[in-house]
Amino acid sequence: MATFAKSTFSYASYATFRPSYPKSLYDTILAYHQGPKDLCLDLGCGHGVVTRALSPYFSKVIGTDPSKGMVEQARSSASLPNVDYREATAEDSPFLRDESVDMVVSGQAAHWFDYPKLFPEMKRILRKGGTLAYWGYKDHVFVDYPKATDILNHYAYGDDEWLLGSYWSQPGRSIVQNKYRDIKPPSNEWEEIQRIEYEPGTKGRTSGEGRMFLERTMKLGDCMNYIRTWSSYHAWQEKHPGQKKRDDGGNGDIIDEMFDEMRKVEPKWQTEPWKDNAVDMEWGMLPIREQLL
Predict the structure, then answer these.
(1) Of 227, 252, 232, 257, nearest to 242 (Cα)?
(2) Are 2 and 172 in contact (CB under 8 A)?
(3) Ordered per-residue pLDDT tens for the chain, 293 residues
(4) Burial of residue 256, with CB atoms counted within 10 A of its CB: 0-12 exposed, 13-18 middle, 19 or more buried
(5) Residue 84, φ and ψ in degrees, nearest 5
């Protein structure tokens, strides 16, 4: 993904502020896997959070990512004897033999793949009856603060050149927003075992529809840094290089402005030091499992 090559991108910040996945998600993903658990391949592994989490369940797990910086970040995070990382695209794994993989997974990356090339490669490397599992998450919701959530959505998707909406890479972002419904493996080769969706609400924790997997309590300052890992934000920075965040001595960037507007409508966020105020957040999520026929 081009964002990872931008000069403004921080691999360490990405690893620190991006949400991680709960054990319940992995239990769900693994529940319908049948047969051996010798080799698992994690596509678009990023900083390796999924690769490491699945290491107790397989004899070996390989994480691949096209970004050299991400692979280096993953290798620096932890060393496990049965985990390896390689710089490679999802569509091309020449280091793997035919029908040698038991499970392929991808967390928050499948919307970037080239599907006409991906699925033939998955068919080649997966054993018959093997599992392909992929999931992603939409934007977070402040579950107790609907007004702040409305402002977040305005800044995230507004069409004005000053806002972030026009800076999302497409069609990837639209695929996420449409809950991966646009990803369609060949029906004569794959069987969809299960699709789970969750759409968060703003009437408190678990007030959304579906089965909730991804939630986190964050300080507002950390939430700002999380939003600064968005690809749209890094594209926005390239367009507005003079707009530096206040924490770096600047007059403020689009995220500073967004939170100024949120604090105007959410009195509880005004208590100083306001960046230390903690908020509950949930993400819309969409785990999908496919089995190779």
Answers:
(1) 252
(2) no
(3) 554 545 556 777 877 888 889 999 999 999 989 889 999 999 999 999 999 999 999 999 999 999 999 999 999 988 899 999 999 999 999 999 999 999 999 999 999 999 999 999 999 999 999 999 999 999 999 999 999 999 999 999 999 999 999 999 999 999 999 999 999 999 999 998 889 999 999 999 999 999 999 999 999 999 999 999 999 999 999 999 999 999 999 999 999 999 999 999 999 999 999 999 999 999 999 999 899 98
(4) middle
(5) -135, 150
How far apart (Å, rounded) are the C-alpha atoms in residues 70 and 4? 8
Q: What angle do CA 229, 232, 237 make, to 5 degrees?
A: 85
CB atoms within 10 A of CB 116: 9
Q: Please tell me whether residue 142 adopts helix, strand or coil conformation.
A: strand
Q: Which two tokens stand for residue 52?
A: 């490491």
What distance, in Å, lies between the first and last C-alpha atoms of the chain? 30
Q: Is the peptide bond before 267 cis (omega within 30 degrees of 0)?
A: no
Q: What is the identity of the amino acid at 167?
A: Y
Nearest Cα to 65, choosing from 80, 82, 50? 50
Alpha-carbon distance 275 to 220, whole Å?
A: 5
Question: Helix or strand or coil: residue 85?
Answer: strand
In whole angstroms, give the CA distance from residue 172 to residue 109.
9
Q: Where are the beta strands (DSSP E) in the chain?
A: 39-43, 60-65, 83-87, 101-107, 126-135, 137-142, 190-195, 198-199, 209-210, 215-219, 278-285, 288-292
